[in-house]
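User: I'm new to structure prediction. If I give you an amino acid sequence, what do you actually give back? Let's try with this one:
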Amino acid sequence: MTSKIPKITQDELKRVLIVGCHLHKWQGEDVRKVLQEQGLVQLDPLNPAGRYHDIFFSSRIPDYQQGEFERIVYLEKLAFETYFHNLNAISIEYFPLFYSQTLDREHLGRYYSRALKILEETHPEMLKQVLNYVQDHGPTRSSDLTNLGKADPKYAVWKTSRNSGTALELLWAMGKLAVIRDGNFRKIYDVIERYVEETRLVKETFTEEDEQLLKVELKLQSFPVIYIGKVSITKDGKVKTRKKVSFSLDNVLSNDMGEDRNQPSLVQLEKDSTSFIIPSNWHQLCQEPLDDEMRAIGPLDPIIWDRNLNKLFNFEYVWEVYKKPKDRIWGYYVYPLLYQGNFIGRLEVKYESKLSTLRFFNFQEEKGVIIDPAMTEAFNRLVSRWKNMVGADKVEYDNTIPFEQ
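Assistant: Good question. You get back a string of structure tokens that encode the predicted 3D arrangement of the chain. For your 405 residues, that looks like this:
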């Protein structure tokens, strides 16, 4: 094992992040290939001009249509939903890695454990009753079970006002049901045996170290740069870090210059020795060229999800939808704009469905950005793709938009 951590420049690390996130060129023609390449995509219900996952796919697929994700992924059973840091749709091949822990109550966490305890005390037959209904009737919505009554607000789970909704969510969290989304992103539940192939419904046994390393490899597939912070090497060649890490960094110290996209490697930034886990084939990623398209980046995209990574671009960004208006710096739902390896500004976009109008407003240009004809053309192509994605009839701009229309 080497006793030195490989060095990487800031420009190289930026390139690894952009290329590793598949934002350097169009990735494919539909969500199947993108999901396979990315491994997972975070989910969020807010829909100002397409939900987050729509923005995620439209920045990687030029002709993406809103709703394509739901129509393809859930119908073809290509992904399953679970919490992995946040709520994610994860490629179905990784199901066994998460299935075992859902079968164990101790992995439910405080939120679901509390709801389960109260539901079992107040309605002891509810879980069995709801599970039997889904088994007998097939894909089920909470609204199909209105006869089960209103849920007590004290223990109702996320945005659920019915006992049936609480029970369905708990059965999903316990690995008994799978979530399917309709075209409006609403949840439908079915028994797990009808959604996941029998060969994947196996309770795998992993050591804690192996499980955590496999999950890091999965995360690395979508989040190609993982911030670690300051580390040091002990005399016996061990990696020591202040940041709590769930697996041994010693296992990734010597993986530099590999060829496996998902194999993790530990590197240090030249300018300040900050450490990151990145794909071991990072030298290859650095050689990939960037196209001339402008992309709007969703607030949960791996390229900006970690604020420590924004510093690589000398770019400030915080998703402020849950802040009070008076506390916002940038705006309600702001999209950073990525162009030729840099963030050139931020803007807001809203789709007025009743007017079939897509509105672009509140553009905030980064200092030092020079808007030239090529950048303007790239912006106009972005607008055209966005209009097509949501199915708008017309586009409107406020006076902050600096690009010629």
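You can read the tokens as a compact description of the fold. Here is one thing that stands out. Residues 373-390 form the longest helix (18 residues).
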